[in-house]
Specification:
10 strands
Length: 323
């Protein structure tokens, strides 16, 4: 087995690679770049690719996966691909059509993981961000338990191997776990997670229910205009992280990724820079000591880069709960 292809077992029996490649890029980045960097990521050893309908790049990401299958670099079964159900499609009858649309864009027969992107429902329709005349988001009200049942049907239909959630707090997870007639538990909860927001309480909760925590924003965050608070400290310049990186002759980014893997978190590394994509896979070349882990644990300061403020005011906005 390739040392770069470490996987953990999900609660439904499928396996997820512990390191994933995040494909999100701000709108100003040309979509053609998603094709190039995803191909490159697969070439250097990434086997877990994370995208979403929201990112508007599934056509390119699918093309990258298919071209690497066509040239013999990988087989379809070697690649773990995640897509996400966007907030405008949380009504149960819209779930399968949304997944089918992603599959059609990807030109794949199935995804490995399909997750609810964000628990806040937005008005269904053409736009991804429906707004009223004052520019306020138009919310919708959907019982997430019904959305979940529609995801279960997609799994039964073979359109996705596994199903999960993203940006859920523990109470929202509990609601699904306690649902009468639950057929499949969520295999994961994908949330922002890094040394400044280490999610230790949510991680403990997820582990106790055999749910994998998947970390996005694991390197702090790109400064995404309108999404990310620009006044927050820059994680990768943290002196503690930098000192540990220097000691191991690694980059602070790789140390931040390694930290997650050692605490049992599946981690996404997002970069559109080939040099850094190649560096990030070195996460398997070294180990952090218990002292290193403790020092990084000590950086937790509840700094959330991605507040997803568009959801504030909706009863399902997840981040007012402690975890």
């Amino acid at each position: 087995m390739d040392p770069k292809d470490q996987r953990v077992k999900l609660n439904d029996g499928h396996f997820i690679p512990v390191l994933g490649f995040g494909t999100y890029a701000p709108p100003e980045v040309p979509k053609s770049e998603a094709l190039e960097v995803t191909k490159f990521a697969i070439e250097v050893g990434f086997r877990h690719i994370d995208s979403a309908h929201l990112y508007q790049n599934e056509e390119q990401v699918g093309q990258a996966i298919r071209s690497k299958i066509a040239d013999g670099t990988v087989k379809r079964k070697d690649v773990f691909y995640t897509s996400k159900l966007w907030s405008t499609s949380l009504h149960p009858e819209l779930v399968r059509p949304a997944l089918e649309k992603s599959l059609n864009n990807l030109q794949l027969d199935y995804v490995d993981l399909y997750i609810i992107h964000f628990p806040v429902a937005l008005k269904p329709g053409e736009g991804l961000f429906p707004k009223d005349e004052n520019g306020k988001p138009i919310f919708d009200s959907v019982d997430l338990c019904r959305t979940w049942e529609a995801l279960e049907k997609c799994k039964d239909a073979g359109l996705t191997k596994s199903i999960g959630v993203s940006n859920f707090n523990h109470k929202q997870l509990e609601k699904i776990l306690n649902k009468p007639g639950l057929k499949y538990k969520p295999v994961c909860n994908q949330v922002e997670c890094h040394p400044y927001l280490n999610q230790s309480k949510l991680l403990e909760f997820c582990k106790s229910h055999d749910i994998v925590l998947v970390a996005y924003g694991a390197l702090g965050s790109q400064r995404i205009k309108g999404w990310v608070n620009p006044n927050l400290p820059f994680l990768l310049e943290d002196p503690v992280l930098s000192a540990i990186a220097k000691k191991h002759k690694q980059t602070p980014a790789v140390v931040a990724l390694r930290y997650q893997i050692q605490r049992g978190v599946v981690v996404l590394a997002k970069s559109y820079n080939k040099k850094r994509i190649k560096e990030n896979i070195q996460v398997f070349d070294f180990e952090l000591t218990p002292e290193d882990m403790k020092a990084i644990d000590g950086l937790n300061s509840s700094i959330r880069y991605n507040e997803l403020l568009l959801g504030v005011g909706h009863p399902e906005y997840p981040f007012f709960e402690e975890y």
